[in-house]
Specification:
2 copies of one chain form a homodimer. The first copy, chain A, is mainly α. Chain A folds into 2 domains: about 1-50, Arc Repressor Mutant, subunit A (Orthogonal Bundle), CATH 1.10.10; about 55-195, Tetracycline Repressor, domain 2. Chain A is about 80% helix and about 0% strand. Chains A and B meet through helix 1, helix 6, helix 7, helix 8 and helix 9 of A and helix 1, helix 6, helix 7, helix 8 and helix 9 of B. Chain B binds a DNA duplex through helix 1 and helix 3.
Chain lengths: ~200, ~200
DNA sequence: ACCAGAGTTGACCAACCAGTCAAGATTCTT
DNA sequence: AAGAATCTTGACTGGTTGGTCAACTCTGGT
């Protein structure tokens, strides 16, 4: 039927909710704040989503596929260092272009991952283990310097997401200019030196 | 006068508050939860601290000195790579031994650093700029490989705090054994290869 | 043993919270 | 133009929250 208004309002709500949830965490966010940000009334929010929980759930569901994709895109047939470098750059670009999503995820993990433990313990874990095996094979073939594959993956997550999650801190320490200026060059150097066999 | 009961209860409250604030953020934490965790009544909490805000403030004040100290301890007269490596190991040990403090800090930054902007923009910023100049001088003398000093410091923060802040994720991905197993070896390798001139 | 001050708490309050509902406004279809 | 379906919201509810207060108990010094 009339899906134009529905689509527009759902998008307004999810966009506002991403602002509020990523800035305050689940418990710290309020429906009033989301409604105000979306320019809708609170009962109207609950006309489109069953509950506060359901809005949050919808945001996470949107996010999770996006989160897996770059890691999945590492090509076993590619050149090892180049593949890992491309993964790092992909994650860094995501931190720059989708900082709210990164902070939503970080808030969730920081608070014990209550709503993500299923996803992490099943899909993400399986994918990480698979990619770790691939990297271990590359190391065994002498095509990468010897590194612990799991820690290598964690390091890429830590270094790239840091620019989104700790953006407030970086801006206060380097008030002039773009907080991410030089980040890609620095990380490229770092992983070039780490991975060269 | 009688400071024994006061000291004991203040410590109980701050310890419980650290649990609750680090797990839920400021807005997500409740005085009831802190009181329950501390084994005291809610009015009793407010006998020792003026408000929820005051408890949080007290935790942050305790934390901030501890946060600066390792960075301050980098010795301009020392051997460059060894000094930076020692700093990294110091931060990693703090992430292992004081994960709640790390998460309290992370929650605060993630939510825009509303209560830390003064500290970051003044004391932390001045110290970071000073240490960045020191590292830049070491690079200029050819005693370190050329790296952006600011990004080097950020990378140490990101990589070490990640093990505390994203502990829940790491545990779910590697359920067997200590989440920090191998972390020190990995980071030592990483910074050895990055910094060798 | 006494009491002044320190420590403690049940009962309470006003503000805020997620969520409901019935009634009204708008839009779509014919 | 009109009826049906969709969309919107003011007013409300029951529960939670930070914080208050008067009354109570406990402790240490004499």
């Amino acid at each position: 039927m009339n899906t134009r208004i529905q689509r527009r309002n759902r998008r307004l709500i999810l966009d506002a909710a991403l602002d509020v949830f990523s800035a305050h965490g689940f418990r710290g966010a309020t429906l009033d704040a989301i409604a105000r940000q979306a320019g809708l009334s609170k009962p109207n929010l609950l006309y489109y989503f069953d509950s506060k929980e359901a809005i949050h759930r919808a945001l996470l569901d949107d996010l999770l596929e996006t989160w897996l994709e770059p890691l999945r895109a590492i090509d076993p047939a590619g050149e090892p260092a180049a593949e890992i470098m491309a993964y790092m750059r992909h994650k860094l670009r995501m931190a720059r272009d989708y900082p709210r999503e990164s902070r939503l995820f970080a808030n969730e993990i920081l608070q014990g991952a209550p709503r993500l433990s299923d996803f992490i313990a099943s899909e993400l874990r399986a994918l990480v283990e698979d990619r770790a095996r691939l990297i271990a094979a590359w190391v065994a073939q002498g095509r990468l310097a010897p590194v612990d594959p799991m820690h290598l993956i964690f390091s890429i997550w830590a270094l790239t997401q840091h620019y989104a999650d700790f953006d407030a801190q970086i801006r206060l320490i380097r008030p002039q200019g773009d907080p991410m200026q030089g980040a890609e060059a620095f990380l490229t150097t770092l992983y070039n030196r780490l991975l060269a066999p």
